[in-house]
Specification:
- The complex is a heterodimer of chains A (249) and B (79).
- Chain A contains nine helices and seven strands.
- In chain A, helix 4 (106-134) runs parallel beside helix 6 (155-175).
- With 249 residues, chain A is an alpha/beta fold.
- By secondary structure, chain B is mainly alpha-helical.
- Chain B has one domain: ACP-like (Non-ribosomal Peptide Synthetase Peptidyl Carrier Protein, Chain A).
- Chain B has helices spanning 3-15, 36-50, 56-61, 65-74.
- The longest helix of chain B has 15 residues, at 36-50.
- Chain B is globular and about 30 Å long.
- At the A-B interface, helix 3 and helix 4 of A face helix 2 of B.
Chain lengths: 249, 79
């Protein structure tokens, strides 16, 4: 299948690496115009060059800290001035601190919630307005299996990702009358920079808990995001789709 | 259509009410048609009609037709 996202503009946060980058590459192949957001402009520029060499869709890149409301507002101001309306928002940017709660600093808690929760709410709040104008849209939030099942050393991260599920399910109800769908993906153990530094013994234990006996790839998640972004899922909202290879936690 | 006419039309369209009902006294939740859901439709309609992006504080503050006029003016629209 091709052209699943023709004439659509997708905004992807945390687009420079991992799941965000894989999603950008896959959605570009399906004809999407892309608004790519991340803190690292040079990585975004590299990605833009890579995508442009193979696809004809428009690509806009913005160096932006998604946890800073004023920076996000500026992005949307620029998009509005160029009459670019976002059809699909993919809230992918996130941080994953790992530490037992007893030794977790309050600053870490605050920073995690600012990026993983407050930034998601803010981006939804701003992006949904252009979708409401069109009476159509899709919001996809990247949660985590840890937000569903919990995990040792992940109280802060897991609770923030559980909040993402709460946001998804309530916002889906609010926006359904406007034909705007809101869904989440809950990746299991995905090989990304975020999981690179996890202790090998823990990785092995995690691998043994995965039914399919392999770690996921960013592409595995990107494919589900593509499904949720496209009309293939036009009657799907308020759902949390696990992408975990049958992981048991 | 003048800007005041556009504003009235936007309210009539978003709230699905007769224009005769649209006066400065019209208040959010003062009629059944202006509830939290249609308020969101109204904001989208106003943004579309006047080509503006209304910030969250103003969305919350927009509690009447009179207040809406005041807020829309802040975005450089002459009413």
């Amino acid at each position: 299948m091709s052209g699943l996202l023709s004439d659509r503009t997708l905004m992807i946060t945390g687009a420079s690496k991992g799941i965000g980058k894989a999603t950008a590459l896959l959605c570009a192949e399906q004809g999407a115009d892309l608004v790519l957001i991340a803190r690292n402009k040079s990585l975004l520029d590299e990605l833009k060059t890579e995508i442009s060499s193979k696809n004809s869709g428009k690509i806009y890149v913005f160096a932006c800290d998604i946890s800073k409301e004023e920076q996000v507002a500026e992005v949307f101001k620029q998009l509005n001035s160029e009459k670019i309306l976002v059809d699909c928002l993919i809230n992918n940017a996130g941080v994953m601190p790992v530490s037992m709660l007893q030794v977790t600093k309050s600053e870490t808690i605050r920073n995690t919630y600012e990026t993983n929760v407050f930034a998601v709410i803010n981006a939804c709040q701003v992006a949904m307005k252009s979708m409401m104008r069109k009476r159509k849209g899709s919001i996809i939030n990247v949660s985590s299996i840890v937000g569903v099942k919990g995990h040792t050393g992940n109280v802060v991260y897991g609770s923030s990702k559980a909040a993402v599920i709460g946001i998804t399910q309530s916002l889906a109800k609010e926006l359904a009358p406007f034909n705007i769908r809101v869904n989440a993906v809950a990746p299991g153990f995905i090989n990304t920079e975020m999981t690179r530094d996890i202790d090998e013994k823990i990785k092995e234990k995690n691998l043994n808990s995965i039914g399919m006996k392999r770690f996921g790839t960013p592409d595995d998640v990107a494919k589900v995001i593509l499904f949720l972004a496209s009309d293939l899922s036009e009657y799907v909202t308020g759902q949390v789709i696990g992408v975990d290879g049958g992981m048991v936690m | 259509m003048t800007n005041p006419e556009k504003l009235t039309q936007a309210f009539a369209t978003a709230l699905n009410i007769n224009k005769a009902l649209i006066t400065d006294d019209l208040k959010y939740q003062g009629i059944t048609q202006w509830d939290s859901v249609t308020h969101m439709i109204l904001i989208a309609e106003l943004e579309s009609v006047f080509d503006i992006a209304i910030n969250t504080d103003d969305i919350i503050e927009m509690s009447s037709f009179a207040k809406a006029k005041e807020i829309i003016r802040k975005y450089g629209i002459e009413l």
